[in-house]
Write a structure and sequence with these properties.
By secondary structure, this protein is α/β, with parallel strands linked by helices. Helix content is 41%, strand content 18%. It has a 6-stranded mixed β-sheet with strand order 3-2-1-4-5-6, with helices on both faces.
């Protein structure tokens, strides 16, 4: 890693952040595969530590949560018996976003279990100071997780239930065609259900969370469907996820925020970060460790 200039390292990092695979990044930058993987581990570790230490004491009031599917090594049905339970197969990325600042507050790459839901909500609570209104989809795991972390009277919680039709977007399309299998179903209805406290019906929504899911799949190649860019190791999957989240929070400007980044809107920084700032986090990490 010491042989690369900061400009070269920034070029590699931006290539990965903009949705390129490791192989294509190597072709564009001339870097070796192991160099790219080493950079992912180095910057990913620094991003994890920086987020854990600094994204705290937030004045967030409205939060949206969701979980995104991806896989490592192979899809669940194709994982060899001897590799099951070792980080291979389906990976569910649990996320919690501030609906006002668009800041990604908490995330977790794990399975789709009650323990994972509990961990996400507990982490969310530890980073916020205000009474929250939380919105999720209809996954029942959230209900128990929120009840465990917040208790009655400490949180307003509502669910958004979306009902989709089974037919493809075009009437008369064959259900066996590729266009039908890879097209989203038609949205038939949206129902909002208060669960805890007194959530405002107007703000029971997961729209910002779903927009983040699109951003994640566009900017992180490991989440792009129907490609061979999926993760081969769960550790690298988590490192790249940490880089994506930190870039999104501190570097990516939003038109809806007047050109600010989510971190600026949440008052965690006062300027737009660059790739060089992300690369300097390893210096911050080393100083913090010392």
């Amino acid at each position: 890693m010491n042989k690369l200039s900061n400009t070269q390292r920034a070029r590699i990092l931006m290539s990965l952040i903009e949705g390129n695979s490791i192989a294509s990044t190597c072709r564009m930058t001339g870097a070796a595969k192991m160099t790219v993987l080493s950079l992912i581990r180095e910057v990913g570790t620094a991003c994890e530590l920086f987020h854990d230490a600094n994204v705290r004491y937030l004045g967030t009031e409205r939060v949206q949560c969701d979980e995104v599917w991806s896989f490592c090594y192979a899809k669940e049905k194709n994982v060899p018996e001897e590799l099951k339970g070792k980080g291979f197969g389906s990976i569910w990325t649990w996320t919690a976003i501030d609906a006002d600042s668009k800041l990604m507050i908490s995330w977790l790459a794990s399975d789709r279990s009650q323990e994972a839901a509990n961990a996400l909500i507990a982490d969310l609570k530890s980073r916020t100071m205000m009474r929250l209104q939380v919105s999720t989809d209809g996954l029942s795991l959230y209900l128990d997780a929120i009840a465990k972390s917040f208790g009655e009277g400490e949180c307003d919680y509502g669910e958004v239930i979306k009902v989709y039709g089974s037919s493809g977007p075009q009437p008369g399309m064959s259900p066996n065609s590729a266009a039908s299998r890879y097209s989203p179903g038609r949205l038939k209805s949206i129902e909002k259900h208060p669960r805890f406290g007194m959530p405002s019906d107007q703000h029971i929504s997961t729209s910002y969370m779903e927009r983040w899911n699109l951003t994640l799949r566009m900017q992180n190649r490991r989440f792009t469907r129907l490609t061979n860019g999926f993760s081969k190791k769960i550790e690298n999957h988590r490192f790249m996820l940490a880089i994506t989240v930190t870039y999104y929070n501190f570097c990516r400007k939003h038109r809806s925020l007047g050109g600010k980044t989510p971190a600026m809107a949440a008052k965690l920084t006062d300027y737009v970060w660059t790739a060089s700032d992300l690369l300097s986090l390893d210096l911050w990490t080393n100083a913090a460790a010392a």
